[in-house]
Specification:
By secondary structure, the chain is an all-alpha fold. The chain has four helices and no strands. The protein starts with a helix and ends in a 7-residue tail after the last helix.
Length: 115
């Protein structure tokens, strides 16, 4: 489980930091905020997902949808409260999460790359 958490967090950080750069965020403060926000939400979402699906037998689609919506909301609040550069924090949070989640789904389609 620790490997799953580590790989998920590392990929999320790489993808969402890249997304932030493409969005136009610059500077150590803003990029650190993106990293910290993802360090807050990603491990929580991954642990809750595996608990809900593995132990509680929830639908994987339902669990992912609920948890990703929660992550978007928390990240939106953090960007709105602490960012000096994110002008549309909800859209940024939504698109960054959709990008990293979608990329993770594509990666999982290729078993040799899955963890």
């Amino acid at each position: 489980m620790l490997i799953v958490l580590a790989v998920s967090l590392l990929l999320t950080l790489l993808l969402e930091e890249g997304f932030a750069l493409l969005w136009g965020l610059r500077g150590r403060r803003e990029l650190t905020l993106v990293a910290l926000v993802n360090c807050l939400t990603n491990p929580t979402v991954v642990l809750l997902y595996h608990t809900a699906v593995g132990l509680r037998h929830w639908s994987p689609v339902l669990a992912a949808a609920v948890l990703e919506c929660g992550a978007v909301a928390v990240e939106w609040w953090c960007y709105r409260a602490f960012s000096e550069q994110v002008r549309r924090p909800f859209l940024f949070s939504l698109l960054a999460n959709a990008f990293s989640y979608g990329t993770g789904c594509v990666i999982s389609l290729f078993p040799p790359l899955s963890f």
